[in-house]
Design brief:
Strand order of the largest sheet: 1-13-9-10-12-11-2-3-4-5
Helix content: 25-40%
Distance between the termini: 6 Å
Order of helices and strands: EEHEHHEHEEEEHEEEHHHEHEH
Structural class: alpha/beta
Largest sheet: 10 strands, mixed
Low-confidence stretches: 1-12
Radius of gyration: 18 Å
Strand content: 15-25%
Mean pLDDT: 93
Number of domains: 1
Shape: globular
Length: 333
């Protein structure tokens, strides 16, 4: 039985150090603002991130630090996106060592998904994402013929597939998590999925402060990966706008299908959390236009740097964490 918590999360489980074994096999993915965040994390940290799954997200530095560009060209008027200009920005940032070497992107697997009924981030924007990565030499798989709205597609959880409303998770008879991870990790993913175990869900502190990110990230760590000698793959999943803990509780963490895949494929899933700041970021989006500072799309960006810290913490072999559910709740499962 899957347990979904909507609203604020009360963390009551055991506190302490947890062993974890994570290999160098690290990828990222996300929906909407999380898709944009996945792209900029991949490009900025390409020495440690080796692939990306982009659901309804645009190309790297699409907004060029401007909010108006973000909500026009990067969501609706994708034909105005100048890829030559964005690639020049990659070259400039690489030369300045603000991002890792772009040659790391060559042959990385990139999965790009856009629903035919997505009228929030139009498919033409995602086509530009695919073209950007193709020009960077990545191996791109694009899905543009599936009739979904602006949501994360799942087999049987959420809103009607063509809708674009909260919680922005769609009942689409399609497992987007499995489809994307199978492409990013073709030698790792089995055709079967397991059952999420509440005891394997942990929280760990984020250190940026609430103007940048929320106080906690979440990590799903199967028992097979709770060993510092394990060699589990790591996939970092970024939620979209209006999908933070304050908006929908743990629904995105628990109901998008990643944990069931992790359970039988030796994956750790990391869910960083943005924060719904009333003044700067009321919808709890990831920063892909510059509200956290001008270097937001580089490895010195406050959110990107924190994600790198979280990745390195998991790779260190031991994390200070809190088990999200109490023993009694796990037993009731």
């Amino acid at each position: 039985m899957k347990k979904v918590v909507v609203g604020l999360v009360l963390v009551l489980g055991a506190v302490g150090a947890v062993e974890v074994g994570v290999s160098e096999d690290v990828t990222v993915g996300g929906l909407s603002s999380g898709g944009f965040m996945a792209v900029q994390t991949h490009v900025a940290l390409s020495e440690i991130v080796h692939g990306a799954a982009v659901f309804a997200g645009g190309p790297y530095f699409c907004a060029m630090g401007d909010f108006d560009t973000a909500i026009t060209d990067c969501m609706q008027n994708g034909e105005n996106i100048n890829l030559d200009r964005l690639i020049r920005y990659v070259e400039i940032n690489e030369k300045s060592r603000y991002i890792d070497k772009a040659e790391n992107l060559v042959d990385d697997h990139v999965y790009v998904f856009s629903g035919l009924s997505d009228f929030r981030v139009l498919p033409i924007v995602n086509r530009q994402t695919a073209k950007f990565y193709e020009r960077m030499g990545s191996n791109v798989k694009s899905i543009f013929d599936f009739d979904a709205g602006h949501n994360m597609p799942t087999e049987d959880f959420g809103i009607e597939c063509k809708e674009s409303t909260t919680p922005f998770i769609g009942r689409c008879n399609m497992n987007g998590a499995l489809s994307s991870l199978r492409y990013l990790h073709p030698q790792r993913i089995l055709n079967t999925i397991g059952e999420m175990k509440l005891a394997n869900l942990f929280s760990l502190k984020q250190t940026t402060g609430k103007t940048v990110m929320g106080p906690e990230a979440y990590a799903y760590i199967p028992k097979a990966c709770q060993n510092s000698l394990a060699q589990c793959s790591l996939h970092v999943v970024f939620h979209g706008c209006q999908q933070t803990i304050d908006h929908i509780g743990l629904t995105y963490v628990e109901s998008t299908g990643y944990n069931e895949i992790a359970e039988v494929n030796e994956f750790v899933i990391l869910y960083p959390q943005a924060y719904a700041n009333e003044d700067l970021n009321p919808l709890g989006c990831w920063d892909w236009w510059g509200f956290t500072g001008k270097n937001y799309a580089t490895k010195f960006g406050k959110q990107v740097a924190e994600v790198k810290r979280l990745i390195n913490a998991l790779k260190s072999g031991q994390i200070d964490s809190t088990q999200v559910y109490t023993t009694s709740e796990v037993i009731k499962e």
